[in-house]
Amino acid sequence: MKISQEELDGARTRVAERFATQAAPAVLSNLPGEVVRDAALNLARALDGDTAILSRGDRLLIGFGVVVARTGQPGQGLAAWLSEAAKVAGKTEEDLSSTAAVAVACATYNGYYKFRSLVADGKEFDAFQPALRASPFVRSSLSNALVELISLAISVMNGCSQCVNGHVQTVKASSLPNPAAAIDEAVRISAVLAALSAWN
Q1: Which one from 86, 102, 103, 160 is the annotated catalytic residue?
Q2: CA atoms of 129 and 50, how far apart (whole Å)
Q3: Distance, CA of 200 to CA of 31 (rounded, Å)
Q4: pTM to 2 decimals?
Q5: Fewer CB near the terminus (10 Å): N or C of the chain?
Q6: How many CB atoms lie within 10 A of CB 149?
Q7: Catalytic residue among 36, 46, 101, 163
Q8: Is 163 tagged catalytic?
Q9: Contact 102, 147 (CB under 8 A)
């Protein structure tokens, strides 16, 4: 399918305008032309959907956490664009720093617990404690529910079933008005941002 340069530029411009950023994320220029319009629409809907349960700023922080966990580069590429958009949406440097800290802690736990879920007969490891620190989970400037949603999105991306189940249960028990919808939004954000960060 042939996509004109005008159509590609239009898709990128609409993303920049929707999030009031200086430009669209550069990753939209790295993708094959056939998927740029879909990727731009998926990005816009995941981060600012019409039926959003979560605020735009919280959605951007979830996406930022996913990209930071995947790339380890909070100030570059897609993460830098998400940071800019999050600030436009009212988030602070402290929010971004807290999100990056949660991303590192979550990815660490994902690595450990993913091993346990991959071992066919892992009961012999049940007696061991992870002995890993995770202060950002409990000492964050972010709400507990947002920490859990960021962690859920990262755990989905990293394929840690034990972590995913734990975060889902915690979100369900939270005071969010519609936990299932918030979980679905976080998972959608994870899917879109994980895919795009691979092309970052």
Answers
A1: 160
A2: 43
A3: 9
A4: 0.93
A5: N
A6: 31
A7: 163
A8: yes
A9: yes
